[in-house]
Amino acid sequence: MDISILKNIIQSLPMVLPEAMVAALILLLTIACIIPWKKPAMVGKSLSWIFGIGYILLKINQWNGQWDNGFLGMISLDNYRIAGQLLLGGLYLFSLHLSAVEVQLKNEERMEYWLLKAAILLGGSALVMSDNLLMIYLAVELLSFSAYGLTAFSFNEKGNKAALKYLLFGAIASALTVYGMSILYGLTGTLSLTDGSFWMNLSTAPVSILAFAAFLAVIGLLFKLTAVPLHPWVEDVYQNAPTPIAALFATLPKIAAFFCFMGIMQLLPPLSAEAKQAIIVALGFIALVSMTAGNLLALGQKEVKKMLAYSSVSHAGFLIACIIVPAKSAWDAGLFYAAIYGIMNMAAFGLVQYFETGKKAITYEDFNGMGKKHALWGIGLVIVMISLTGLPPTAGFNAKLMVFLALWEQYETTSTTIYLLLLVFGVLNTVIALFYYIRLPYHFYFQEEGEEDYHFYRRREVVIENRLQWAYRIALFVAILPLIVLFFAPQIIL
Amino acid sequence: MQAINFYSLIFYGFSALVLVSALNILLTKNVLYAAFSLLVSLFGVAALYVLMGADFIGIAQIMIYIGGILVLMIFGVMLTTKLKGEPILTQNRNVLSSLLVGTGLSTFLGLIFSQFEWANRPWIDQTALAEGSIRKLGIATMTDFLLPFELIAIMLLVALVAGTYLAKK
Amino acid sequence: MIPISHILILSAILFAIGLMIILMKKNAIVVLMGVELILNAANLNMVAFSQYDPSLKGQMFSMFVMVIAVSEIAIALAIVFKLYHHLRTVDIDFN
Question: Can you tell me where the transmembrane regions are (chain B) (predicted)?
């Protein structure tokens, strides 16, 4: 036993201090589960908020720190990853707020609900830091387990069905991932991605085995990103999970997987040029298919949440496009895109949740003629939808533009066809996306409410209490303001 | 020489056991038979672990898989069927395509794995044959693998809470 | 000593059988059995390789995989059990 190992562990403890905070939250909530509180919602909510803010503060404290590899090559930390984790923390807090104003399912009174949410944050945060096959696998599984549980928290038949579908997909994806990782381990003799011998050994491996193993090993991450071969669960899960949970699923795991992927791609250079090329082409192809298929599937949807689900598949395509560009500009573009994507999807789900709670509006038709009564909400809706499409004057435009610019620069320097293809398909997809995003404001303002609809919906309408109205307004303001501000001042993030 | 032959005989015997019982899961329609075939298959895998010098993993396999997962599964089968004396059956779907995928994949993998000289990988240390793994595993858990160990502790807790809460509700 | 490639072929066949079970069976619990078979195939690989690894990373990995398999099954059976309450069946139809 070498004493330096223990020294390394002790030195790397501050790296995981924020994560330890979240772990402490999980433990506290476990204890809180068994105490019969008078106001369980208050306890769960306030504990989550306190520790969530603590997480963010500790993460800010880590900024610009001199972090080396921690825990003997298990994790590593740099400013880019810390930025990603701060983003995750922000999304977590926002989704806490959405959960607190979700009144139909009474989930806020269930301590387990808050616990599983905290577990998602922990899993995401661990995934961003991971530099080891085992850590990546464990973090993905932690994210998945809490996600399976939370999907079933709508406690109806459809929610359970969606949870089972999600779980089977996830279990198969994780099994394939482990199989791929086991072969990678056999090829290299190490699990650590930062270990130089990992990439050295990979570059001498036969192509067929390497391609097979590498493809299987990234399936777990692609599953979390909802890239195309692994997307069929997305529709049911987003539609049937409680809406604040769907908002969390649409953003946090994907962004975590994205940052993990970015970290892996940063380590690629020791590989041979052909292998790198093959990886870029394969991922580029997945990106291409994801953005196109996601868009086309979103076009055919009648329910708004399903539309958002498939649109998130399409956005995953753009995120992967950032991953495969090995240039500084793509890093900035990726960070910006991930941040904007998270903010605008949270805003979109927040809006959907408001209309779902108050007006029972689920399909496009349900939104007919609401523009007269809810003009202010409509403005928010228009801004969010324009931002999701990627048009000015919203930050969604800047995000897409930066991705396109990065792709174009990379094409000019390397003249690899896949970048040009991604660029062309990205622009085309933005045009397609316009149709289904703008449909919602169109129904909202320009469609007349049918006569029979009118009475039907008036009967279903639920009056949202004043307190909640304000909670929603604040949430939307917080989410929509950055979309406008960042359009004019994108340098805030970069 | 005699001992080595005996060793490989046992090894290939258990391998055959694993494969035959795994195939039986595929072929049988009775869910309980499938569960018991899985038991035999997992037991065979545990024996293979022991033969490969991973005694601790072998015992963990028996305790976790056979003692935990299989009992859970059999309970799951029993709780989700109306027991009326008739066998619990499962239907097959897309038989032909999945058989094609399976046989194609296994021949492909068999070919690429058998053609490659694994023993020549630079990292492989023929002299490092592991023996008596428990002590090493214990130290590794507390040093190299400390962080995953802590993470998986939290994960077990989360899985426990999620599982019990969902089943209770 | 058994050559590594023999163990790899064994695990590859196990992997293929697991995949076939997943694709073929309708009962959710049997599908989970297929997942277990794939996990076992991966563990076999890990243990086979870690014979030559003095730091036993493969064996550690397979231990973690086992724990994850247990928790996965626990959550899965809870969900399957609830679904049975609603639908009176545990057959999956992905439509």
Answer: 6-26, 31-52, 58-83, 95-113, 145-167
